[in-house]
Amino acid sequence: MRTVPTCAAICTLSLAALASADVYVFDNAATFGLYTNAVGLIDQQQNFNGYVGSYPSVSGGSGDFAWTASAPSGLFVNGSSVARTLSSPETLTFTFASSNVYSVGGSFYNVDSSGTQQNSVMKIKLSDGTTFVRVVSNTTTFSGFASDGVNITSLEVSRAGTLGAGTFVASSGFVMGVVPAPGAVALIGLAGVLARRRRA
Questions:
Q1: What does the alpha-carbon distance between residue 194 and residue 17 come to, in Å, rounded to a whole number?
Q2: Distance (Å, whole) CA 187 – CA 198
Q3: What is the CATH number of the domain that holds 94?
Q4: What is the count of structural domains for the chain?
Q5: 3 state SS for the chain
Q6: Are strands 53-60 and 67-77 parallel, antiparallel or unpaired?
Q7: What confidence category does residue 23 fall into, taking pLDDT thresholds of 50, 70 and 90?
Q8: pTM recorded for the entire structure
Q9: What domain range includes position 174?
Q10: For residue 152, what are the CA distances in angstroms to 21, 87, 137?
Q11: How deeply is 143 buried, as exposed, middle or buried, from its count of CB atoms within 10 A (0-12, 13-18, 19+)?
């Protein structure tokens, strides 16, 4: 896992970096966008529009961007399109239908029963086990991941520790990065060729 907090670190990256099979962790939305654009991913913003009330799970997107959000006791979506777990403490899980998802990021935080954001320590975990633990003090704190070799099938968000006890995990939306099916193979293949040439 590599944390990439600034744009300067991104500017030197190239497709050759894809051969290393790393997961990059981002705490800045602009840097995340620069990286996903640099490696040719197609980003699409996702939200919970169209849902208001309690649900076992909610789904959105289509094709490579199809996703489902769920929690053990279900989800509640308020009138501002913020989704949260129905029970505390529970994990908010996003699952992705496509095998072409290589990045995901968004605003993940804790709220009280009235929907007011509460400071907390959040644990954000990818399907490959990569975990980002951080303090979240507002609704715009960004957390993102980009994989350069293994597709992302799920993202789990939960509270870690006692800061924010009695709160509910929430999200106001997220962005997914996808390589269309033929492009995914070509992108990873090109990265391998470039890496072999560099070693030669």
A1: 9
A2: 17
A3: 2.60.120
A4: 1
A5: CEECCCHHHHHCCCHHHHHHCCEEEECCHHHHHHHHHHCCCEEEEECCCCCCEEEEEEEECCHHHCEEEEEEEEEEECCCCCEEECCCCCCEEEEECCCCEEEEEEEEEEECCCCCEECEEEEEEECCCCEEEEEECCCCCEEEEEECCCCCCEEEEEECCCCCCCCEEEEEEEEEEECCHHHHHHHHHHHHHHHHHHHC
A6: antiparallel
A7: very high
A8: 0.79
A9: 2-199
A10: 12, 26, 26
A11: buried
Counting Cα atoms < 13 Å in the Cβ hemisphere of 178 gives: 21
CA distance 9 to 168: 34
CA 182 from centre of chain: 23
**One-letter amino acid of 165:** A
Query: Encoding tokens for residue 173?
Result: 């939306």
Burial 5-35 (b: 16+ CB within 10 A, else e): eeeeebeebebbbbbeebbbbbbbbebbbbb
| Structural contact between residues 64 and 101, judged by C-beta atoms closer than 8 angstroms | yes
- Per residue in 46-88, pLDDT (tens digit) is 999 999 999 999 999 999 999 999 999 999 999 999 999 999 8
Distances, alpha carbon 179 to alpha carbons 17, 73, 183, in Å: 16, 33, 6
